[in-house]
Amino acid sequence: MMISKTSIYIYIILVTRCLIYGFIKVSSSAYHIIHNDHPIQEVFGFLRENAPRYQSPPPPPILLSNRIQGTTSSAPTNPFAQFNPSYGAHFPTGGVAICAMAPPTCENSVYRTMDGSCNHLDNPALGVANSRYGRLLAPKYGDGISSPTRTLTGDDLPNARLISLVVFGEMDVPDPQFTLINMQWGQIMTHDMSMQAGGTQARKHPTRCCTDDGRLIASNEAPTTCYPIIVPPNDPAYSQVGTECLDFVRTLTDRDIKCLYEQGPAEQLTAVTSYADLSLVYGNSIQQNSEIRAFQGGRMSVDQRNGAEYLPPSRNASIDCDAAPPGEVCYQAGDIRVNQNPGLAILHTILLREHNRIADVLAKLNPHYNDRTLFQEARKINIAQYQHISYYEWLPIFLGSENMLKNKLIYKTSTKNFINDFDSAIDPSVLNEHATAAFRYFHSQIEGRLDLVSELRSVLGSLRLSDWMNRPSIIEVGDNFDSLTRGHSTQPEELTDINFDREIKHFLLRRNMPFGSDLRAIDIQRNRDHGLASYNDLREFCGVKRANRWEDYSDLIELDVIEKMKTLYASHEDVDLTVGGAVEAHVAGALAGPTFLCILTEQFYRTRVGDRFWYENGDSLTGFTEEQLSEIRKASIARLLCDNGNQIASMQPQAFILVSKSNPVMPCADIPQVDLTKWIDQKPFEPTSDTLNAIPYHYGK
Ligand code: HEM
């Protein structure tokens, strides 16, 4: 009886709120412009003064080797097999943190390194895999050092699952404009830019804070990294099966690995490079890369099945996947999260196939190129296309074109113009406020039903997301690879709002059990684990008026939502960033309210101008020619899907946007393509026997 009453109450308020909320928009004038009129040093002077780690980075850990052993050759062998450093080398493992390794000095190489080091020549460790997140505001840990955030008065913050149930809804509201591939590209960008250290985000975590049947393990018996989410009594879902506890393992910090820690509050570590460099395709270290590279024709390793190329197999399928029958396919890629959901595995495959497609074309155009040159040139083009699609086609949907132009994240320019805006004063590290709060708001776009769609765009069937998490084999069944790809570019994503799909709110990673976890509750708990500054702090930081009492939040938040937060939080000062930012009315033309929009804009500005290898830079060593750049600017998500499906024949030209009269499905051949003949005989830097020994090993040869 109690269960149904609770559910009914929640549903009624959510329906009412959604109806009202959907129509409210905030004018963009409420948004504080960061980059236009004020130099970043001025507005973020605080950051400069409070960022001693950036100004003088810690000495790099001991280097194992500074030289490549042997030379690359076109033979399909792995030249790195003998190179076996003890850290920074293999794919991240749950519960284990490793030290970043950046060389003390850098050579000015033609290509990006695999681990992101030496992108910044004076500060080689910036943006490197296994380093700290950046932060806009000082952390608010419970003990000032590392324990999870508490209320102003030192009490426990309200239960994360309860907030997920009361403040956030689970209504199915299809987006009227954007397709599901829009959501899926977002997860690709996320996995490219950050991954909290010590976690798995897909496969079962080796650290257990709850028993397998959902009972809490006593704190004196549980590992110290445990911070489980307690399920409230009468929970509408979990009480049906007696689940009392959702597993949650704290992210590892610089305090957990002595090679990075100096003093002061803990900072979480991120296991992947922070650059938009397709590290999820190529790996985050030379060693990771060498495990998935073919070493022939510049190609990445693939498995051929039924006439198509798929990602290579995981070396430990029983750990990496929840494959039911043993022998079911499970993949290995540059990122360990690859198997987490079918759409993710498909885009991983598409980006991998794109690399090999480019390498094959380049090999025909330039028969004198060896494996290394083909690999690096194909990688460079693949990354450039990806950066172009991300910033000019995808990000404007989230941040708004006007906002992006105003803040210099994109430019209106002729097709050939270079944009040399690399700024060595900008730290490209991924901000904790971005990865742990703002960017996760787009979990709201996740759809729990994945449609299988034919070439004629009729729905053939659909999959339930939670049936196929961590079980990617489904994408290889029958025509599913193409049907799901068409499905993702045809069906709408979920509206970006306070609703989070039931499949991720009660059934996340359920591994054949009746219920799984709750991603919204996890996001809230993670906010506290990382000790993020409060919603009110970030509001103020972003130029929105600081609230002195609950009612002051009504400038951006619906009154009924404020009322609900009031019933949970002791003070308006306690509201978590993940919660407050997600219930703000959106800025016109964007998919986030002013506070999250400010954080996201700041992050993507840094990701662009802090990247020395950004594809639009006209650097004569690392960049493209004007003709090549104008070709890269023709890349689109539609063409990427067309070129790399099994047999996809048609697509709408703007695949992030729903099919309509102005965006009709058309033959793939009619969608503009990057002309790779502009790369004929463009001789990249080729090491001679003299220079080879001078090239540090980390250059990703
Ligand atoms: C089916 C789609 C998705 C699923 C199942 C999913 C699931 C997850 C899970 C399980 C985590 C780890 C949570 C934790 O332990 O703290 C996570 C982290 C995250 N997700 Fe998603 N996610 C999806 C899509 C997205 C999208 C579309 C975005 C943004 C556009 C996004 C942004 C993030 C971010 C920023 C993180 C933190 C990354 C880090 O470790 O630094 N996710 N997601």
UniProtKB/TrEMBL annotation:
Alphabetized UniProt keyword annotations: Heme, Iron, Membrane, Metal-binding, Oxidoreductase, Peroxidase, Transmembrane, Transmembrane helix
PROSITE patterns from the UniProt entry: PEROXIDASE_3
Biological-process GO terms, alphabetical: response to oxidative stress
UniProt-recorded Gene Ontology molecular function terms: heme binding; metal ion binding; peroxidase activity
Residue ranges crossing the lipid bilayer per the database entry: 7-24
InterPro entries on file: Haem_peroxidase_animal, Haem_peroxidase_sf, Haem_peroxidase_sf_animal
Residue sites binding heme b per the record: 443
Keyword field contains Signal: no
Protein name: Peroxidase
Organism, scientific name: Bactrocera dorsalis
Gene: PERO
